[in-house]
Design a protein that fits this description.
Layout (H helix, E strand, L loop, with lengths): L4 E3 L1 H7 L5 E5 L3 H4 L8 E2 L5 H4 L8 E5 L4 H12 L5 E4 L2 H7 L9
Parallel strand pairs: 1-5, 2-3, 2-4, 4-5
Length: 107
């Protein structure tokens, strides 16, 4: 049983307007170089165990990847560390783009 929620691209847009929501791109550097969801931070999945403490003060954390598989693993890991209000973007950047949303350059 998973301890995180799946979220659709349309619902993510409204969640992102709330305070202290952190959007985390867990893709590899070469994938992120092609574009990132605006205001997201990049923590490659392999680095999450080292960097997850950056997320502990968030009201909500949303993980995403290319299609939603790696981000589901990230969400599982985050909840195992005690993070609450954790979400996985269903369909990843593929779903985000298909919904007509834009991408930005990594900061």
């Amino acid at each position: 049983m998973k301890n995180y929620s799946d979220i659709e691209a349309a619902d993510l847009v409204s969640l992102m307007t709330q305070p202290k929501v952190i959007l985390v791109d867990v893709r590899n550097d070469d994938e992120v170089a092609r574009g990132i969801i605006p205001d997201a931070i990049h923590i490659q999945l392999s680095m999450l165990p080292v960097e997850y403490e950056k997320l502990v003060n968030a009201n909500a954390v949303v993980f995403y990847c290319h299609s939603g598989v790696r981000s589901a693993h990230a969400a599982d890991f985050a909840t195992s560390k005690g993070l609450k209000n954790v979400h996985n973007l269903v369909g990843g950047v593929i779903a985000w783009g298909r919904a007509g949303h834009t991408f930005a350059t990594k900061k």
